[in-house]
Structures are given as structure tokens and as C-alpha cells.
């Protein structure tokens, strides 16, 4: 049996040796911190580091290299080198290092601004900035032109919406706005303008200002600038393709999903050797996902809307008997609502919508993480929706005079009275639903 005291002493000695060696390593470069700190921290190739791994273990050593996929690390304990995927690191440390080395691409966040949206009668809209008014028109600035919009065609008041800046201004107009804020002697100002240029898809100017930042101060974020310059150069060489993919985003945000999908799918055929093929594939998946979310939301809204319309129409009809109206609501209304919702979705979202898809989305409402809008119901509506048996479940049976009075009624008269009550309750429910819909609208 091993001596436990001797075993503990060996462990302590090994731990002290490791700590002393690490201290000696870090003492060689006292000006460089061992962990990623604030803006002034200088973590570069050769910097000593305590590397925290995803499983909680740590490695002591120095950074030997890095790229977008892995961190190359020279281990202190055995002198070997390991290539550690970023996903294997502690997430917080990985994020800090990726940010420090310039692998986090903030330029992909497109510049957004507030604009005016004018909804037109007959469908469609105009989005831009209202710059003037005449007696008959509103003058709306877009990136292509100043468009006169006849007041007679505008439906309701204008609303403020967030849109990509390139829908309202030209790329040159946006660049001049950014350039007016530049301090040409500040590396940080040059970097900020370069990132701004990438947000407006102006890659050529982005390269220019990234290079200006590096030239002003070679010690200013060298790793980040190196990656950014290479990225911006690649984009500048493929500016036409970037503009093409931007149109996919614009169509998607305007709800024209089928056009956006067709454009994304055609990218590989138009640019078979493009380095942006992965971006096109990603945008295709984004369009498919957003189209599904839009359909799921619209199915629920339109189903309630059409159900209310059909119920209101049947209630107003004089010719069908009450029995026939109730039978249609029970048996035929669902199919009528399904057909109406499908037709409207084909017009508003995508001609490819099929009834089976609509029925599935209606059945799955609230099950896929989407928020389903709460709808109010009164006591009378609840009784009508539940039916007499479920509505009266748990109530005490009638006794005494009330029971005798009920028993004295003719059975046919009692059945007719019940139908009349259901009809009146249905009428009241439809009227309240219409009032609530008008208030919400």
C-alpha cells in the first residue's frame, strides 16, 4: 500500500513545480497579460495564456498561431503544440479571443434606418422618406428616385418602419454621410468608417480606410485589421455578387419570399466559381424559414377572420332554417374557411401554398415556439362553443318546481327553445367579435 503522506507530498511538489514554471514563463514578458482584458490588452502570437477549455480543464502556454477555425497553442507542460478548435474552448474566452483577432464580422450587420411606409389602396406600399407635399401628392425619396405618390391612393396614415439604409439612400450618399464624421488622423476613426462602409456594402472604400488605420499606427489592432483587409478585398472583388445577394435580403424583408427564393437558388448558376456560394445557400435557408414563420402567423389570423365572416353571413341569411345553419357550421364551415384562407395566402404570401399545409399549420398553432395571440370570449360565447353538456358539467341537477315546470313542457317546444337560445347567443358572439376586430384594427 502506498504511503498516503508521501503520495500527497509528490502531488504538492508537482503542483508547485507547475506553478513556478508558469510564473517563470509569464515573468519573461511582464508587459503582456495572461488573460484577455480591455481595449489595451495585447494578446498576439507569442503571448502567454492560461487557456480554459470547454470541459473545465486548463492549459498553460503561449499562443503559437490562429485562424478562423482553430487556435494553435504551445503547451508549457510538455513543449508540444496543439490545434484547438474554437468550439473546444470556454465560450467566454473563445468569444473574447475571436473578437480580439478580428474573426467576429460586425460588418455583416446591415445599416438600418427609420423610414415612412405608405400603404396603397388595392395592395402594395411605398417605403422611403417623405420629403415634400403638394396638393395632390406626397413626394417620397427612395434610393432610385423621388417618387410622387397620389394622396388618393394612400390608405390610412403613414407609419414609421426600420428598413435597410440602401432602400432610401444611394451608396455614395451614405458614404459621404459617414465621411463627414471622419477624423483622418485617428486609427480608430478610420476603422469605424471602414466598418460603416462594409455595412453599406461599399467594400472598396472599406479597404481604403482599413489600410489607412493600419498605416497610421502599425501597433493598432494588427490582427483584426489584417483579417478585415483580406475580407474587404475579397468582397470588393465580388461587389456585383454582394449586390445580388443584397437584393435577396430586400425581397425577403418586403415579404416577397418566392422571388427571394428564386434569386438565391439562381446564384450558383450565375456565379459558379463565386466564394460567396455558402452565403447564397445561407440566405436561401433564411428565406425558407421566414416564409414558414410568416405563413404560420397568417394562417392563425386569417382562420379566425374568415370563420367570423362566414358565421356572420350565415346568421344574416333568412332563407335557411336554423337547423340547416347549425348543421353547416358543424360540418361545412371548416372546409369553407380552409379554402378561403388558402386562396388569400396564395395571393398575399406564395402561390405555392396548398390546403394540406394550411390545415397542418392551423393544427400546429402554438406548438412550434411562435406566439399565438390571445382572443377574448364572454361567458355566452364559451357556453356556445363548449356545448350544453360540457357547459353544464358539474352543476347540481334541477329539483322541485323548476324540474316540474321543465317536465311539463312539450319536448318539441323545449328543443326549439334551445335552438333559439343558441342562435341568439351566436348572433351576439358574432357582433361582439366584429366590434373587437374593428377596435383592434
Structural account:
This protein is an alpha+beta fold and 441 residues long. The protein has 16 helices and nine strands. The chain has helices at residues 4-28, 91-100, 171-179, 187-199, 203-216, 222-237, 239-253, 257-270, 277-316, 322-331, 333-348, 355-363, 379-386, 388-391, 400-408, 411-440; strands spanning 48-52, 58-66, 70-75, 81-85, 112-119, 125-133, 137-141, 146-150, 159-164. The strands form two sheets. The protein has a five-stranded antiparallel β-sheet with strand order 8-7-6-5-9, with no helix packed on it. Strands 1-2-3-4 form a four-stranded antiparallel β-sheet, covered by helices on one side. Strand 6 (125-133) and strand 7 (137-141) form a beta hairpin. Helix 8 packs antiparallel against helix 9 (277-316) and helix 9 (277-316) crosses helix 16. It starts with a helix and ends with a helix.
Write a brief structural summary.
The chain is α+β, with helices and mostly antiparallel strands and 441 residues long. It is built from 16 helices and nine strands. The protein has a five-stranded antiparallel beta sheet with strand order 8-7-6-5-9, with no helix packed on it.
